[in-house]
Prior knowledge:
Layout: E1 2-4, E2 7-12, E3 17-19, H1 26-33, H2 36-39, H3 50-67, E4 71-75, E5 81-89, E6 93-100, H4 109-124, E7 129-135, H5 139-147, E8 151-158, E9 161-168
Parallel strand pairs: 6-7
Antiparallel strand pairs: 1-2, 2-3, 3-4, 4-5, 5-6, 7-9, 8-9
Amino acid sequence: xxxVDDRDVVLTTPxxxxxxxxxxxxxPLLEVHSDPESMRFVRHxxxxxxxxxxxxxxxxxxxxxxxxxxxxxxxxxxxxxxxxAGFGGDAGERQIALLVRRSHWGRGLATEIAEAxxxxxxxxxxxxxxxxxxxxxxxxxxxxxxxxxxVDTGAEDYDGVPCRSFVHPS
Length: 170
């Protein structure tokens, strides 16, 4: 990883940069997290408050420092926040997760970052299984997961939300 503007650069793609977070990212992430349509299938399934977003960024900063991976800040090459992408889970089973700002939907960015995250996982897997969940009805996310090689393994309930469960053969 290299550092730019007090951020670790985790990876880059032709159109995206994945970096660590800084406390000043609360406002830009809140713009994404306060959009009802963007949050429909994410976290609590509703827009989130500034306090929730602050807590989330604090968690991501702590997690990145402690284990070297988290859900990172997803930006365009000029540094504009597009969303977040990375991994949840634990050392034995990482779960890919991503959220793209609604104004950037339909451009293939989710597929681009998902492919890059699968490659990053292969390099940094340490034997971990790569999984994913997508809420039933989230056809865009299910399509992205299948495009990058995830295999549907069935239904799963996550915090009361019916989901499709996936595993990557990497």
